[in-house]
Amino acid sequence: MIKIIVKYGIAPRHVIRFIPVTRATASSWLNGKSKPADDKTPLLQRFINAIRTAEKYGELPVPAIYKGRARDTYIVDLLGKYLVGPGRALARQL
Fold first, then answer.
1. Dist. CA 51–CA 92, nearest whole Å
2. ∠ CA 81-19-10, rounded to 5°
3. Angle at the Cα of 82 (from 14 to 37), degrees rounded to 5?
4. What CA–CA distance (Å, rounded) separates 21 from 36?
5. Which of 5, 55, 74, 87 could cross-link with 46 by S-S, CB 3.0 to 4.6 Å?
6. Is residue 29 very low, low, confident or very high in pLDDT (cuts 50, 70, 90)?
7. Dist CA 46 CA 41 (whole Å)
8. Residues 6+ apart with CB under 8 A from 17
9. Which residues neighbour 13 within 8 Å (Cβ) at sequence distance 6 or greater?
10. Residues 6-23 pLDDT 10s
11. What pLDDT score was predicted for residue 67?
12. Measured in whole angstroms, how far is the alpha carbon of residue 89 from the centre of its chain?
């Protein structure tokens, strides 16, 4: 489940924009050191569905022209566009 997040270089700083966890927790998930708690699993699943939808429409991987902060903004905006349900309201500003 987590592999698709890592595959596209989505970092903990992107995950915490949509799922209310600390950066350390998101990092542990992505590094395989821990698994999401049961209450976070539905939010994580919506997040992954947004990634799959972006992949389906050819918007991932992130185009090479986006670097640094522009890349971060692209990822957050893209996933926010496809995220449906309560998770979208959790998106925080960069």
1. 17
2. 65
3. 55
4. 10
5. 87
6. very high
7. 9
8. 76, 79, 80, 90, 91, 92, 94
9. 23, 72
10. 999 999 999 999 999 999
11. 94
12. 14
Position 73 confidence tier, pLDDT thresholds 50, 70, 90:
very high
**Token match 């991932």: residue?**
60
H helices of 1-94, in order, are 3-7, 12-15, 23-30, 41-56, 68-82, 86-89
CA distance 88 to 71: 19
Question: Cβ distance 40 to 21 under 8 Å?
Answer: yes
Amino acid, res. 65 = I
Residue 33: which residues within 8 A CB-CB, separation 6 or more? Answer: none
pLDDT at 1: 78
Is pLDDT at 85 greater than 60 in this prediction? Answer: no
